[in-house]
Give the backbone structure.
Amino acid sequence: MIYKLRSVLISQRWGKWLKPLLIPIVLLAMWQAWAPIEGSASGIAPTPSGVVRGFWELTVSGELPSSLFESLTRIGSGFCIAFTIGVSMAICVWYVRLAEYLIDPLIETFRPIAPIAWIPLAILWFGTGTWAAIFIVSYAVFFPVFVNTLAGLQSLDKRLLDAARTLGATKYMMIRDVVLPGALPAIVLGGRLGMGAGWAAIIAAEMTVGSKSGGGASGGIGQMMFIFLSYSLELRYIIVGMITVGCVAYMIDSVFRMVQRRISPWIQTS
Amino acid sequence: MKLVCKNLAMTFLNARSGDRIDALGPVDLAVEAGEFVAVVGPSGCGKSTLLGILAGLIKPTQGEALLDGKLITGPGRDRGVCFQDYALFPWMSVLENIAFGLKAQGMGKEERESHAKQLILRVGLVGFETRYPHELSGGMRQRCALARVLAVDPQVLLMDEPMAALDAQTRQLMQDDLLNVWAVGEQKKTVIYITHSIDEAVYLADRIIVMSARPGLIKADILNDFDRPRNEIRTMPAYAEQINRIWSLIKNDAIQAMTK
Amino acid sequence: MGLPELPEKVKEAQIVSHFATARRVTVRYIFSLGCFILLWHLTASYVGKPNTLPSPGVVGLQAIEVIGSGELLSHTASTLRRLVVGFAIACFVGIPFGLLFGLSKSLEAYTTPLIEALRPISGIAWIPLALFVLGIGEELPHFIIFFGALFPIILNSADAARMTDVNLLNAARTLGASRWLIMKEVVLPSALPMIFVGLRLGLGVGWMGVIASELIGAPSGLGYMIEWNRTMLMSSRVLVGVFTIGLIGYLMSLLLNFVARKSTPWWGGWSRRDL
């Protein structure tokens, strides 16, 4: 029967569609079949159908949308703060040599320290609320944005700057029409990587807060997942949370990639 | 005298290793208004450095360069530069690239776009106004770069091997285009044209400066006053003789440069 | 042609030229960090809450205490042990699979959707589920590290295999090499630099993963240490832990880079800033 399946896959035109779906379908089927067997013993094993139901239930009850909204607001604010600071500092470091000497070593010292490591301190300083989360997100977003913006500025073709000067461009025009557009692809890349890092950081931060303070003010997706773990043992809700985290990460990345493509059609995006 | 170089020299200093490179000079040069001067020489003879100094992008370590008697201290609209790889702004369309210099002068959008369109007509890029540089062929980019420089109407044109990246056939056509554009107008522009190609120099220029290997000194200053228009001179024996004369001046230096 | 002329005040130019030579890079670092520590000290004195923002001096003293008592070492060892195990498994699974994935179009067609679906779910998001299934113990960090590091390793190995120069492959085939020999002598060496890039990324993710899992559910390790000290309001020790985390991460990258450079001496692509 396997050979028949294989020949179908290779020969038929719709076999092409079936190929990528084959393994996921098989796995899902196995999971669905396995769960009741396992579940009858412990009674709490999640099934794919249970997860789908979970999505529905959480959306209807409003918990999923509100947590999601909370997390997204936090990452949005953190991103805006860190992006502004990161780009400005990169321009500063690029333009003023002394700034490079002062700031670069600091950046290189703090960059290896993962944002997660700052969570306890952030909680100590800002409490278990939104500001701690925004702090962690900003920290996470800052470094990719800064590093990539600086790299973009440094790799600007010097001849383009020369050409602009020989055409009589004013300093203001140089920055607005030559430097920024030239560095823009790198800046967008930095934004994309920063958002990726920021999203992972916010989930981690929320989870840590959730595991400590347990309950309290609505704390985003991360905390939601932990509350379900600690209080209700509804595993399928946890899985719903995980899938949501993955989907949002994917969507954020896609949006940035789209922006990348539109801004710099002359560059290939990986 | 339009352009004067007095005792001009350039030494590059490598901050890290402490090496000194005597790239150019000392050089004395005088160019009249409306002259088309070609500069040829072996690799590394400082031709691009000379152009950079005249453009105001490099500060010489010795001597001075003067335009109309005034010291050249920085880049400006009066000396237009055509770079070797065109240096077109990739994020601007052809029209926007050409209009850039006019925008720098504060010209309004409609006015500079109509100006730019006139130049597009002049260099033969009609229909490509909204295209981006990466969509253009080499010859078209060359024309766009030329149009961009002409838009600001400089008195002097400094060209650094502008045709080097073009294939031989396009190059011949572009050379004629360049001469046509240069010859038009009440006042012919002064042109300093750097090239590796001796036959290109002989085809285009009124006067050919031959430079020696590093440190770049002026080895010879040769008059090249064939009649214009020059479409037919490639078949004349005098053309080949001139090329040979210049090549014999450069040959030894070129061999040295290759084996160094 | 020349560089853009930037306006610099004379005094600044003097300071700049003083720092210009390469040998002075370490001096620059010391100067910059020194300024930072000074600023830190001033801020801490101004704020005056030693439990929230300890001064650098206090942090230094605590660091010495913690190192001397062996506490720091034991925590670091626990964390590193977990990292090594999880990362090693990720390598053993990820590199071969990644190479095959890059070379075989059919394998790619079958497994891409699965990989693309699981990849965006960061390793950290697995913690609640894994915590339930595995409980608090050594398996939790192992799993999180494994899962986090797996994807960069697989994807980079796949890219590396895919980008093997076709000319080299053809040359090997015309010289009569078997498929196995080609894999071993051509594909693998040529893929090594990029595999190492994947390892570097995976190590970074894995490092974050182990700290995160320790923060949430582990009885030892650096993550546990900083969290425990936070509950004790010993923020100076928290900072010691934080800086240790950064330092160890940095040293590991250095080590990995060193190994990478030594095993691919023919590749000219390594730069000083490959960290």
Q: What stands out?
A: The domain at 76-221 of chain C is CATH 1.10.3720.10 (MetI-like fold).
